[in-house]
Specification:
Elements lengths: L2 H7 L5 E5 L2 E2 L5 E4 L5 E4 L7 E10 L2 E11 L25 H19 L7 E6 L10 E6 L5 E4 L6 E3 L8 H11 L2 H7 L2 E9 L4 E8 L5 H12 L4 E7 L6 E4 L12 E7 L5 E7 L8 H15 L6 E4 L8 H5 L4 E6 L2 H13 L5 E5 L2 H10 L4 E6 L17 E9 L2 H13 L2 E9 L9 E8 L1
Parallel strand pairs: 4-6, 7-22, 12-13, 17-18, 17-20, 18-19, 20-21
Antiparallel strand pairs: 1-5, 2-3, 3-4, 5-6, 8-9, 8-11, 9-10, 11-12, 13-14, 15-16, 21-23, 22-23
Helix pairs in contact: 2-10, 4-5
Length: about 450
Amino acid sequence: MPANRRERLVSSAKRHIITVDKVVVGGQGLARLADGMVVMVPFVLPGETVEVALGRQHKGYASATLLEVIDPSPARIEPLCPHFGGCGGCDLQHADYQGQLAIKSAILDELAARAGIGADGALLAPVLPSPDAFHYRQRIRLQIDTDGRLGFFARRSHAVIEVEACPLAVRPLNQALAEARRLPGFHHLVTQASAMELLLNPASSRVVVMLQLRRKPRPADQQAALALAAGSEVIQSVWLTGDGFAASGPYCGDAACEHRDCGRIAFAAPDCRGGSLTMGFEAGGFCQVNLAQNERLLEQVHALAQVGVEDSVLDLFCGMGNFSLPLATESRRVFGSDLQRSSIRAAQANAAANQLANCLFLRADAQTAARQLIAADEWFEVVLLDPPRQGCREVLPLLPKLGSAKVLYISCDPATLVRDISDLQGLGYSLRHLRGVDMFPQTCHLEAIALLVRE
């Protein structure tokens, strides 16, 4: 609905002019009415005076809709994407990049202050900016509705907003999407699929396509996948996945292909010696979506870990070895565990490909692995933690029993990170470094890295 029409439909009793205090976790602006009621409103920036329409009442606050920006922030810009505001993917395209970094830095600073984790004089470093503010994602997931619309979920909805391209995706992904739309095989598959994932393989500069089907693949689906791969120069291979059946593929357009590498994603990662490692993972496996920023994050890990040639490194959420394998080039040994089978296969393959014989990767959840290592009287100078969004509170009490002079904690949720840091401080660890890492420009999401040391 156009903004001027929306304004006419709002009663004067619900309209308020407010000044935004700050942007909080989740990307919404926080302000207060004259009576002290907290108001949460999206698409605003700190310090702005705006007119809003009050909406639903919640416990402790009211949600609101932005009607007009009366006094804009100097950081406010025109969003690049025409779908911004409707699409649920981005929160901050209305701010220039320096403004986005300032918002994320303030959020992390406030979370740390609330948790009291900076009381020991720890350094809270500025947020590490991404090399690219747009076209940085080497992986996107598009939704497909029952009418065949392909795009992203609308804000706070499961309705699909159809998109032709995404400005956050690296350009080969958008090129593959445009080429696929012109091919008959694609249109057949879209009618059977609920989602489509596009992954850039940096090693080949081509794209792996994964379609999540609503049912088990049939011969016609497999023929369509072959036609889709054969009809595009940028598509490396196509996979058909879904719940309740094994992935089918890879399908590619090269008749001479032996399918050894056309389903694998590979990239280069810096090691501790100034060189690089060849890293890879299976299509569908986990990887950081911003590979250029991942290199910067790895440099932070190297600088903070300061591993020695006699040090042992424990990586309790190792994935494909993204953080621990580079440290293996300077340390005595690396032990990694993860619950995902494909991640362990990838970590083992990456160690072998880079001729790192001092690594052992085994499938186990973090708590089980830690308890088994304690029982075996193992000892580690450095522990890496990169847990899921919910954190790893249950593992923390086990770390002092593993030696663990240094803990490097990488998190995709700063709120659970500061909670777990507080727990570690209660176990005798001191926070020495905390820094946000902007892995996801244009969104409210923030990665962070912390170093804790136990004397």
